[in-house]
C-alpha cells in the first residue's frame, strides 16, 4: 500500500502544480504553443501588450534583430542598455517586453538629408586690383574694372536661366558680372569716364553696328591682324608687371577686341581697378576724335537701328 500511496502522492503533487500554472494568466501562451508563427502575429501581439502594459515596456537599443533569452533577462542591468521613454529617440530601436520571448525591432524613418551649400565669402570673390589715387589716372590708360549689367531675357524664350560664374540672380533680376577693360577718356572730381572694350565672345563685330566701334590690338602679339571696323585699329602697350606675359594672358588684348566709342562708362575713384596698359598719343587723339564725332547735338537726327537679318528662309510660292 505504501508504494501506491507514494505514487499517488507524486501524481497529486504534479496535478497541483499543473493546476496552479493554469490558474496564472499566461499572456504569451499563443506564442509558446506555436513558435513557428509569422512575424506579423508577433508584432501585432507585441504592440497590443505595449498599449496595455506600458509600464512593463522598455526600449533597448540594439543593432541585431533579436537577443538571446539570457540577454533579455539581464538587459535592464547590463551596461549599454538603458530604459527610456517610448518616443524619446528617432532611430531604429528594439522593444523589450517582460511577457514576450522576443524583441520586435521598430524601424522609424530618419529625416531626409538637406544639402547645405556654403555661402561665398570675401576670400572667395576675385579681387579686381586696388583703390588708386585720382592722380594716378592718366588719359589713355587701359584699366580693368568690375562691370555689372542686367541680363537680357527674350520673352519668347522659355528657358530658365541658371547661375554661373558670371551670371547671378538678385532681387532685381539676373546680373552679368565681368572684369571689363576701359580706356580713360576724361577725369572729374570723384570719377572718370572711359570707353569699354568688347570682344563679344570672340565673334568680333559680326552682329554689331560697325560704325560705332574701332579695333584695338596688342602691339606685341596682334599688331598686323585684320579688323572688321571702318577705322584703322588702335595699338595697346602693356605696362609693368604685364610687359612679359604670354600671348594667352588675360591682360593681352586679342584680335577680336573693339572699343565702342559711343558707350562711355563711369568709374568712381573709390573702386578697385588694375592698370594694364595705355595708348600712345597718336592713337589717343584718334579715339578722342571718334568719340567727339558722336557727341550729343541738338540738331542730330535719332539713330535708326538696322533691320536684323532673317535667320530662317521663307519658302517662295
Automatic annotation (TrEMBL):
The source's domain of life comes to Eukaryota
Q: Which residues form the DUF6590 domain?
A: 135-288
| Pfam families per record | DUF6590
Q: Where is this region: Disordered?
A: 1-43, 64-84
Q: What is this protein called?
A: DUF6590 domain-containing protein
- Classification lineage: Eukaryota, Fungi, Dikarya, Ascomycota, Pezizomycotina
Amino acid at each position: 500500500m505504501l508504494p501506491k500511496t507514494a505514487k499517488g502522492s507524486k501524481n497529486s503533487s504534479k496535478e497541483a502544480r499543473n493546476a496552479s500554472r493554469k490558474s496564472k494568466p499566461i499572456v504569451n501562451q499563443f506564442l509558446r504553443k506555436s513558435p513557428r508563427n509569422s512575424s506579423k502575429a508577433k508584432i501585432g501581439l507585441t504592440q497590443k501588450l505595449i498599449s496595455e502594459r506600458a509600464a512593463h515596456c522598455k526600449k533597448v537599443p540594439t543593432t541585431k534583430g533579436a537577443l538571446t533569452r539570457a540577454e533579455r533577462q539581464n538587459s535592464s542591468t547590463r551596461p549599454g542598455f538603458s530604459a527610456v521613454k517610448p518616443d524619446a529617440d528617432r532611430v531604429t530601436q528594439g522593444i523589450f517586453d517582460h511577457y514576450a520571448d522576443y524583441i520586435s525591432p521598430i524601424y522609424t524613418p530618419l529625416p531626409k538629408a538637406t544639402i547645405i551649400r556654403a555661402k561665398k565669402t570675401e576670400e572667395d570673390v576675385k579681387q579686381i586690383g586696388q583703390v588708386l589715387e585720382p592722380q594716378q589716372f592718366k588719359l589713355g590708360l587701359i584699366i580693368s574694372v568690375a562691370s555689372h549689367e542686367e541680363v537680357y531675357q527674350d520673352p519668347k524664350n522659355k528657358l530658365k536661366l541658371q547661375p554661373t560664374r558670371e551670371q547671378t540672380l538678385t532681387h532685381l533680376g539676373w546680373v552679368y558680372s565681368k572684369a571689363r577693360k576701359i580706356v580713360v577718356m576724361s577725369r572729374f572730381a570723384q570719377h572718370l569716364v572711359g570707353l569699354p572694350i568688347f570682344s563679344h565672345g570672340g565673334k568680333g563685330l559680326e552682329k554689331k553696328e560697325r560704325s560705332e566701334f574701332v579695333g584695338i590690338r596688342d602691339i606685341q602679339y596682334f599688331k598686323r591682324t585684320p579688323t572688321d571696323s571702318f577705322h584703322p585699329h588702335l595699338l595697346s602697350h602693356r605696362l609693368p608687371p604685364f610687359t612679359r606675359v604670354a600671348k594667352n594672358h588675360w591682360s593681352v588684348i586679342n584680335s577680336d577686341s573693339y572699343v565702342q566709342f559711343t558707350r562711355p562708362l563711369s568709374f568712381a575713384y573709390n573702386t578697385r581697378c588694375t592698370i594694364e596698359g595705355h595708348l600712345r598719343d597718336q592713337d589717343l587723339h584718334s579715339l578722342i576724335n571718334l568719340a567727339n564725332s558722336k557727341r550729343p547735338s541738338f540738331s542730330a537726327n535719332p539713330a535708326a537701328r538696322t533691320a536684323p537679318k532673317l535667320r530662317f528662309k521663307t519658302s517662295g510660292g
